[in-house]
């Protein structure tokens, strides 16, 4: 699916009679380097206590793009309606092109979780559109939602259905990986089953840390599935404590090499994420930001 900023370009090409796929258009144009994003899970405690103050602080630091980490269960964005949250973002000069959601097979407090792919997805999509979200991302499968290969096929079907609904609202559905999708079952990877979905309906948010931890080279994935990865999670792996999280540029992942293939991947937006920080998450986010500005954009 084309992003809004590619619309005029694609329309001009089509009017000229050229048949160019959306993925190729994304790769030709490349991502907008002015946007440096943060996944709000990094500052989740601060967002829970003071979302307005947290957003203002992130904007002052130099982040201008965010990815949401909460909607499921409350059907609000950090306690706010989509319209109120969009207004707060605009007030701080921020955009939130992407937000995380859940499959919804796992219950919360003994009841189905609303605002998930399986429960009240229509409302979730409408709210995302109202908040200015362009990408709705299936963030995580709990252990109960993983299962065997047949169950991953079921998950793939649900992604397809959810992606169709997103498409009607002008939104792209994506799937965010961890490492468990790369654990082979009967010689097959669950991630390959998810990639077998319609690439127009389901794209991928590649978490560079988790893919690397699982022993898979992001560049190989880009080559095998060009244009399929419009979103990235940029998080680093500690050199001293293997498989621990660290600030971007402070670990073992070669981000310069990966970013050199951004167009092949189809990258549109990337988000720094650090699940665990040694001190203040704001300090870690600032260190990652400084490295990215100096070395990657």
Helices and strands in order, then pairings?
Layout: H1 7-15, H2 22-29, E1 37-39, H3 44-49, H4 51-61, E2 65-68, H5 82-91, E3 95-101, E4 107-108, E5 111-112, H6 121-131, E6 135-138, H7 149-168, E7 172-176, H8 190-195, E8 202-207, H9 208-213, H10 218-224, E9 231-234, E10 236-237, E11 245-246, H11 255-259, H12 262-265, E12 269-272, H13 281-295
Parallel strand pairs: 1-2, 1-12, 2-3, 3-6, 6-7, 7-8, 8-9, 9-12
Antiparallel strand pairs: 4-5, 10-11
Helix pairs in contact: 5-6
Largest sheet: number of strands, sense, barrel closure: 8 strands, parallel, barrel
Fraction in beta strands: 15-25%
Find the count of extended strands (DSSP E, 2+ residues): 12
**How much helical structure, as a percent, in the residues?**
25-40%
Shape category: globular
In DSSP terms (H or I, runs of 4 or more residues), the helix count works out at: 13
On the 0 to 100 scale, the average pLDDT is 91
Structural class by sheet pairing and helices = alpha/beta
- Show unreliable segments: 1-28
How would you describe what is shown here?
It is a single chain. 40% of the residues lie in helices and 15% in strands. The chain is globular. It has helices at 7-15, 22-29, 44-49, 51-61, 82-91, 121-131, 149-168, 190-195, 208-213, 218-224, 255-259, 262-265, 281-295; strands spanning 37-39, 65-68, 95-101, 107-108, 111-112, 135-138, 172-176, 202-207, 231-234, 236-237, 245-246, 269-272. The strands form three sheets. It has an eight-stranded parallel beta barrel, surrounded by four helices. The chain has a two-stranded antiparallel ribbon with strand order 4-5. By secondary structure, the chain is of the alpha/beta class. Strand 7, helix 8 (190-195) and strand 8 (202-207) form a beta-alpha-beta unit.
């Amino acid at each position: 699916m084309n992003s809004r900023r590619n619309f005029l370009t694609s329309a001009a090409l089509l009017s000229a009679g050229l048949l160019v796929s959306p993925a190729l258009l994304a790769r030709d144009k490349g991502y907008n380097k002015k946007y440096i994003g943060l996944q709000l899970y990094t500052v989740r405690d601060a967002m829970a206590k003071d979302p307005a103050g947290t957003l203002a602080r992130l904007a002052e630091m130099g982040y201008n793009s965010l990815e949401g980490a909460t909607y499921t269960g409350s059907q609000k964005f950090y306690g706010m309606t989509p319209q109120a949250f969009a207004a707060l973002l605009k007030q701080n000069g921020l955009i939130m092109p992407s937000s995380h959601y859940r499959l919804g097979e796992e219950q919360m407090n003994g009841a189905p979780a609303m605002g998930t792919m399986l429960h009240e997805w229509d409302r979730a999509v409408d709210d995302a559109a109202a908040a200015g979200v362009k990408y709705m991302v299936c963030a995580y499968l709990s252990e109960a939602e993983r299962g065997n290969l047949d169950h991953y096929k079921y998950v793939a079907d649900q992604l397809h259905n959810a992606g169709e609904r997103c498409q009607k609202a002008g939104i792209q559905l994506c799937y965010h990986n961890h490492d468990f999708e790369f654990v082979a079952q009967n010689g097959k990877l669950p991630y390959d089953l998810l990639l077998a979905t319609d690439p127009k309906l389901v794209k991928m948010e590649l978490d560079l840390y988790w893919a690397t931890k699982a022993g898979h080279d992001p560049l190989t994935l880009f080559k095998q599935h060009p244009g399929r990865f419009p979103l990235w999670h940029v998080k680093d792996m500690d050199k001293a404590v293997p498989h621990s999280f660290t600030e971007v540029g402070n670990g073992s992942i070669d981000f310069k090499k990966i970013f050199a293939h951004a167009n092949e991947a189809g990258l549109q937006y990337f988000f720094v994420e650090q699940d665990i920080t040694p001190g203040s998450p704001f300090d870690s986010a600032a260190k990652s930001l400084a490295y990215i500005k100096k070395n990657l954009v």
